[in-house]
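Re: export button greyed out
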Amino acid sequence: MDDTALIRLTDVSKVYPLESGDFTALDHVSLDIRESEFVAVMGPSGSGKSTLMNHLGILDVPTTGELFIQGRNVAAMTNLERTHMRRDIIGYIFQKFYLIPLLSAYENVEYPLILKYKQRDTSGKAAAVLKSVGFDDNMSAHRPNQLSGGQQQRVAIARALVNDPKILLCDEPTGNLDRKTGLQIMDILVDLQSKGKTVILVTHDPKIAEYAHRIIELEDGRIVES
Amino acid sequence: MKDIFFDLSVRSVRLNFLRSLLASIGIVIGVVAISSMGMLGANMQLSVKEQLSSNVNTVMISSDVVRTTTTAGTPITSSGITKTQLSEIKSASGSNIVVPLHRTSTQFTIGSTDGRGSIYGMDPNDIPKFLTIEVGDNIRGANDAIVGSTIATNFDLKIGSRIKIGPKDEPSRPVVRVSGILTARGFASDGVNTDNAIIVPDDWYTDHYGDKDLYDQVNVIVKNVDTISDVEAAIDDKVNRKSDVVRIQDASSRLTSITATLGTITTFILAIGGISLVVAAVSIFNVMMMSVNERVQEIGILLSIGTEKGEIRRMFLYEAFILGVIGAGVGGICSLVIGYSVVSAMIGNTAYFFLPDSIMYVPYGMIIGIVVCVVSGLYPAWKASNMDPIDALRSE
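Workaround output, generated via the alternate export path:
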């Protein structure tokens, strides 16, 4: 185990009680992810990729074992502390973009800043981040349903980046995009990793996984290759 | 700073405009019901208070017991103040004016038109002591009568008009001649409501209705209003020394009693109005639950990117608040219009409508409307804030 790990899972299991019997989504997973790493998580459906990402995103806590993020035990944190950690050090990029439909592209990016600083962004940071991911300024006032998939994913990346998180969790970020746009998005992620972000990417696509420094293979909730 | 959660709530209301509007209509109806009913009650109370406060110097004495006498083997019940009690009242009242009077209701015919009203019998000399004759003169002859303003107007009576007293199927009915017409008194706190009444001499009354030795009411008009309690106490000591045989009231006690009754009526009709707000609350609750259920994925997004539960709650409570403000705002305006019409139609006098005691029911109704909305939004807001972000994100 590496003492400099940004994320550490120690013997983590996640068990969902079902009427048909307990279902083990993660089975004694131990894993270290260092700062500025680019990690791809692969595996067939039901292998535990989403459950792992939910844990890394502090949306869920292990049934047994320990998960440390930035040295803090997630299970020991209060609900509010977890919320603040999600807001401050984790940026989420989803396959379905998950933008807030009632807000414009600009407001979607501004939203995490408002959550953090409890005021509207007057520094121009939201606009600058939006521009840095190649989003057309003229589209800032458009609602998500008025944007193409590629544009929506750029907005989603900008939203994930705007609070300057240490960790970027990307759940199939190119899954809903055409090849060309998908590659452009991957270029942005590579660039972000080179600037110091820790990028953790879930993908089914081996070509996308090739961008990562390390590939973690999951099967039946266990790491089979790392 | 403009709160982004408020902004989200406004946009949600706008997005579901028709649904929000329909839900708000419930609040509009509730606010109108509460405000209009409240204003109606308040105007009734103010109107009665005004009328009653014009006779604050009068003590009213009525009989508290029913007597049974036997005439030719037939028991007859009667109630009234006896001559002896009247003497005691006069003695206890000192130099204050004592007005004994008889009263009953009667049918009458003027020309070919039949009517019904009260008939008072009293000493003609007492009439000018507390009644104002607007047209004509006081009673002079044994068959003279004075009529109230409502009868005079409705039957187009003039001085000298004749009135047949009694049911029209009676073979020979006595006739009185109008010698004077009184000014309108409205609802009088001294118990002498003359607007729809005929006043005849006490001898004429007892000749036709009997009970010569019993009066229905005795009024004591106190010269110095500050001594009214002393006068009441003196009469009580004198007449009710053995047991309570007469009831002694003054305008203020009647006022208290009547306003308390009107207050109860007002509360009752407010409660009926409140039922519509309960219906509105259910409607708002339903709309808020729909809003939460339609936005499950959005709630999941908000929670997953670091929105606090309290902020989610706030967003939905804002939405309920906005619905409340819209409903209460429109309801407040409608209340003014509808309340004014209701008061005008039912009381016939809008002089008190804009007084604080009346108009306060508009903001009062609006605040209740908004509070009802926010309370209706509590559970949906709580439900939204306690969603599991993973489950919420997965929902379609």
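The radius of gyration of chain B is 32 Å. The button fix ships in the next patch.
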